[in-house]
Amino acid sequence: MGGGSQQTVPGEPDSGKAKGVYTWEEVQSHCSRNDQWLVIDRKVYNITQWAKRHPGGFQVISYYAGEDATEAFTAFHPDPKFVQKFLKPLLIGELATTEPSQDRDKNAAIVQDFETLRAQVEKRGLFRAQPLFFFLHLSHILLLEALGWLTVWMWGTGWIQTLVCSVFLATAQAQAGWLQHDFGHLSVFKKSSWNHLAHKFVIGHLKGASSNWWNHRHFRHHAKPNIFIKDPDINTLHLFVLGQTQPEEYGIKKIKHMPYNRQHHYFFLVGPPLIIPVFFNIHVMQTMVSRRDWVDLAWFISFYLRFFSCYLPLYGLVGSLVLISIVRFLESHWFVWVTQMNHIPMDIDHEKHRDWVTMQLQSTCNIEQSFFNDWFSGHLNFQIEHHLFPMMPRHNYHLVAPQVRALCEKHGIPYQEKTLWRGFADIVTSLKTSGDLWLDAYLHK
């Protein structure tokens, strides 16, 4: 039943209107920038015009053009019934009854078992947050900020006091980073609007960044992790080559923007020290100004007004700028090592159109649980569970982990878990391996 044959689709609100019946081949042909269809629960939607107005950004929804987006849709939308009112006008038909529910080589058994697991998780209430947990987390961030200021207010602005203050403030910044991550994923409040407001406060006023910048960047990472072009977290601006495919491609094409065989050395100079102080700060400003995001800019300014009102009387302008630079430098190291240990050592490749579970498990790994690891990483040591259930409150990751591990064992999917130090070391090891692959291809292929 190809060719978009017209018939009435039973059960639709506007069922008097003729709808098409399509094959996967037809759906997959609509995946260009100006022609985009996708499938959710076997219903076919034309999102070509809607993609430009998608609250999560044009790119993240476009990543699923021409394929089944059911699992991603479920993972990212806390209230599917609410979203349906936006989907109804976009409905153009459904898959033919002869077509499978999954496209390409996606494993139907894994998809079904994960759907069952998700239903069990919802029944257990694991998507419900504990308000006290997040209140205490916010309180300890504010306490750290107060301790930083009190240190130099009471004991002076010598180098030792300044270093102690910087550690307090960098710790507060790192922990605020994990907290804004919670609000950004809509995992704290039942109402999305409350999460959005809290997100702007934490990432804007407490951290000096932009919620919209973070949303449009981070959800692309979750939608297609470790996939070239689509995941912004592996766009290294030609400073590094990652995985096994990219090094060989660069080597064969004789691309040498950097001495990639030494990247495991210069990573320490350009990765951890510069991501937040240089790259993120510049990118945040560019994004807010280019998109005329004045609300986020106001929150951003409020952070610096608060910071300088606290420290200008103590340090003066130059000293305050030095202090914030030290804080960003320390925070950047914390952020890079924690966020990259779960992804850089994993599979990094071009789009393979895998099912949700397989895609997430091949691109993520866990770090052993402990009180320190949970706190230090913002529970992102449970990266697998977080990627499978991005809206789940982080204090529940450990409760679902045994079921996720069992699902992986049933289907022969590797579930990787390591020590914190092994995770750090694997970043460097994987960079060296990729660099060696590049050098071999560059010299011999």
TrEMBL record:
Please report the record's description of how this protein sits within the membrane: Multi-pass membrane protein
CDD domains from the UniProt entry: Delta6-FADS-like
Which reaction is recorded as catalysed by this protein?
Answer: (8Z,11Z,14Z,17Z)-eicosatetraenoyl-CoA + 2 Fe(II)-[cytochrome b5] + O2 + 2 H(+) = (5Z,8Z,11Z,14Z,17Z)-eicosapentaenoyl-CoA + 2 Fe(III)-[cytochrome b5] + 2 H2O
Q: Where in the cell is it found?
A: Membrane
Q: What is its EC number?
A: 1.14.19.44
What PANTHER family does this protein's entry cite? Answer: ACYL-COA 6-DESATURASE, FATTY ACID DESATURASE 2
Q: What is this protein called?
A: acyl-CoA (8-3)-desaturase
Ranges for domain Cytochrome b5 heme-binding: 19-96
**Keyword Signal on this protein?**
no
Describe which pathway this protein belongs to, using the record's wording: Lipid metabolism; polyunsaturated fatty acid biosynthesis
> Which top-level enzyme class is recorded in the Swiss-Prot or TrEMBL entry?
oxidoreductase
Membrane-spanning parts: 132-152, 266-285, 297-324
GO BP annotations of the record are: unsaturated fatty acid biosynthetic process
